[in-house]
């Protein structure tokens, strides 16, 4: 299993991107994805978002990486990856590798 970051998730919806893998993400990544998809594809689609309770732990990650300007959304992803033992993220974001995760797409 890999975590799918926003950029990779968006690529999944456009024909020119051929990478397809099992998907796992957070509701924050879904939020960003829905915003971008709505702008590009229109707001006529519906999305199911997973519920999470990991925000407090994400704040600790945010403090740990404060000097690197990591986003809260990415910190939630780090929490989920740790909890679900997901070693790899499909992302174009350097913060995932700096947080100790393997990355695809970067």
Description:
The protein has 106 residues and is mainly α. The protein contains five helices and three strands. A three-stranded parallel sheet has the order 1-2-3. α5 links the parallel β2 and β3. α1 crosses α2 and α3 crosses α4.
Q: What are the SSEs and their pairings?
A:
Elements: E1 2-4, H1 6-12, H2 27-41, H3 55-64, H4 72-83, E2 88-90, H5 95-98, E3 102-104
Parallel strand pairs: 1-2, 2-3
Helix pairs in contact: 1-2, 3-4
Strand content: 5-15%
**Number of domains as seen in the coordinates:** 1
- Tally the helices: what do you get? 5
- Taking strands numbered 1, 2, ... along the chain, how are they ordered across the largest sheet? 1-2-3
The level of helicity is 40-55%
User: What is the radius of gyration?
Assistant: 14 Å
Mean pLDDT, as a whole number?
77
CATH class: Alpha Beta
Shape: globular
pLDDT below 50 for ≥5 consecutive residues: which ranges? 46-50
By CATH, the superfamily comes out as 5'-nuclease
Distance from first to last alpha carbon: 17 Å
H/E element string? EHHHHEHE
Total beta-strand segments: 3
Sheet of most strands: 3 strands, parallel
CATH topology: Rossmann fold
Architecture per CATH nomenclature, i.e. the level-2 architecture: 3-Layer(aba) Sandwich
The oligomerization state is: single chain
